[in-house]
Amino acid sequence: MSTLQLLAEFTAAEERLLALRPKNLRFAEAASFLLAIKIAYEGLKRAEFSTGKSILVHAGAGRVGTQVIQLAKQVFGASKVAATASSGN
Prior knowledge:
With 89 residues, the protein is mainly alpha-helical. Helix content is 43%, strand content 9%. The mean pLDDT is 89.
């Protein structure tokens, strides 16, 4: 049993804040999504992004980029979202 699994037995959280880990992700990979979401959200807040604005997301296929796209559309009400990515992505 890993330290993370052991500590999880003693952690309290509201059920509405929890989600199942996708089986194709390790614990560390799943946990890293929280940081990506926080970085994306803070960036949009600092930029004073708001409903009806358009946004260009560089590296839109990356972990933070994908979160910026989703937050801009779903939470901040972007009117248009454009993104760049490498040809491999």
